[in-house]
Amino acid sequence: MGRLFLLLFGIFAFLHFSGAAAMPDIDDSDNPECKDTEKIAEIAVGVKEFNDNGKKAFEAVHGQLTLVQSLLYLVVDKQETLEKRVECSPVGANVSNELQLLRQVSILTREKTDLAERAQESNKCCSEQVPQKDVEIKQLKEKVAKVTQEKTESEEHYEEELEKVKLALEKWENATSDELKKLAEEKHRAEIEALCKLSRTAELTKLSNGKKYAFSYPEHDWELTPADAATKCAEKGLHLATFRDEADLNAVVTAAADRTTYAWRWWVSAKNHGSGENYDVRWHDGSVLERKSPLWRFEGGTKEGCVYFHSGNDRRLNWSECRDHNYYVCELPTECY
What we know:
Elements: H1 2-22, H2 37-88, H3 90-199, E1 205-206, E2 212-215, H4 226-235, E3 239-240, H5 246-258, E4 265-272, E5 281-282, E6 306-310, E7 317-320, E8 327-331
Parallel strand pairs: 4-8
Antiparallel strand pairs: 1-2, 2-8, 3-8, 4-5, 4-6, 6-7
């Protein structure tokens, strides 16, 4: 449509300028003052003819342009009508669908070509990078193998060092244990020596069982609890009396009875360490006084309490509450003989 208008405009310009070219030349060189009326009339007639011819040409061209424009409008209208009919008809729909499919095929073909070119470029790039990656993987594998080997060697070295440490620790523990035992023995020996030295100031009596004892005197000593009595004995390097058999018991009971005209209760080192109905009677050194021991006046009971003997007729061990007050018998430690 645009091209047709340009063509018509060119024709109109050609006709206009060709008419202008046909206009007669006016030579006023002979009459510079332009006073010749005939020449003026000829010029006016020529100008009028030129204007008339140009007007007629313009009207003719304008008419042709109007006709062409009408024809173009008619063609466009017909084309749109035909396109609508084609689209509404089954054949037109098929053609339209086919054209759309062809367009899609063309688009997909271009996309396929682009992808193929990209894939070729990518394959070229990857083909260049694969050897490099293989080298890097190989280097990493070598590093892993090296680290694994170092780890194994380190674990072996660690196991060896650990075994050495265990042996050294065991040796040190044994030496420490022996040293502790030695120190404990030396401490016990020093304590015994101190007790024995202290016991030399006590008034001791050797009895028929071969052991030495110190008795509190009912005439001038106050009665004490078992705890206080044990403290009094310790101040002299002694401990409360301990009976291993009936010979010890009989020797001490007889000596205690000879020291007074009355029957008195005398504390010994035995004590029930149990609670409630639990029987756990032990001497000062931790040795057990059995429930059925013949040293008991009655079979050892289960009540909590401390132990004494009576210097009267029963001459056996018996129970008493630990808060009671009685006299006491101290004994020289065996280590001091």
